[in-house]
Amino acid sequence: MNISGNTILVTGGTSGIGRALAESLNDAGNCVIVSGRRQSLLDEVTAGREHMHGVLVDVTDPGSVTALAQKVRTDFAGLNVLIANAGISRPENLLDEAWTPDDAEAMVSTNILGVIRVTGALLPVMANQSEATLIATSSDLAFIPMAAFPTYCATKAFLHSWLQSARHQLRRAGVEVIELSPPYVQTELTGARQASDPRAMPLGSYVAYVMDCLAEKNLPRGELLLNDASGRRFAERNGVYEAMFAAMNSR
User: Fold this and answer.
1) Which keywords are on file for this protein (predicted)?
2) What is the pLDDT of residues 50-86, one digit of tens each?
3) Strands 175-180 and 223-224
4) Total-model pTM
5) What is the pLDDT of residue 229?
6) C-alpha angle 90/92/95, rounded to 5°?
């Protein structure tokens, strides 16, 4: 992926990593289409920015994704980069008498099916370009789960596997596939407290790191993760999985 001169669509682009990445890519000289579920936030993100566009999309709604694909074909036929970033995270306590599968179903619908839907809808447009890239936001929790977030971590583990297969298949069409595996970052993914948690990586620092890796094409195995996340990535191979799982889930 070139760092500039692209037409890029970012799902979940009205907050957190999606918004910061959309803004940085726009600053780098790309036409960026930001999608989200609230028009007020889309207006806020795109205000005062050239070559930044907002589109209402709900990735859990197949009809909404179909409408997005139609708009892209009409208004943004040069789309060559999709960043499938929309995702939600909710804790779950399976021993709680009030627990139901509702939150799990919502996370599967957004984090897994949302990525598959937008990829399927927009891949025909991207495949017509001379250079195309699919980026999907996974997590370093795909490699070792945080047990308080069982379904969220499982959805990211699914994406890690699915993207490997997609990368293998799409190489024949010249479509690059990149897995973005963020660490714990100062966003509101799990609530307002996370955005100011000193244990989390500052959002600006993380997005700057991503931009540097994309510019330098520092993407071993098509994966973009922090160097210190390699311990989790290869914990099973290195024989330390059980120890790392216990350390992450000591409560």
Assistant:
1) Oxidoreductase
2) 999 999 999 999 999 999 999 999 999 999 999 999 9
3) parallel
4) 0.94
5) 76
6) 170
Q: Check 152, 184, 206, 209 and give the catalytic one.
A: 152
Name the domain count of the chain.
Answer: 1
Task: Let me know if residue 163 belongs to a domain.
Answer: yes
Contacts of 67 by beta carbon, 8 Å cutoff, 6+ apart? 57
Q: Which comes out higher in pLDDT, residue 183 or 70?
A: 70
For 215, other C-beta atoms within 10 Å of its C-beta total 13
Q: Give the CA distances from residue 88 to residues 51, 111, 139, 158, in Å, rounded to whole numbers and listed in that order.
A: 27, 7, 12, 15
CB-based contacts of 59, cutoff 8 Å, min separation 6 = 11, 12, 35, 65, 86, 110, 113, 114, 115, 117, 118
Q: Which residues make beta-bridge pairs with 189?
A: none
**Residue 57 DSSP one-character state:** -
Q: Quick check: 139 pLDDT over 90? A: yes
Is the CA virtual torsion 236, 242, 246, 249 positive or negative? positive
What is the residue whose two structure tokens read 């100062």? 186
Strands of the chain (E only): list them. Answer: 7-10, 31-36, 52-56, 81-84, 132-137, 175-180, 223-224
Is the residue at 88 inside a domain? Answer: yes
- Boundaries of domain holding 157: 7-248
Token pair listed for 162: 């699915």
Sign for the pseudo-dihedral over CA of 49, 50, 55, 59? negative
CATH code for position 156: 3.40.50.720
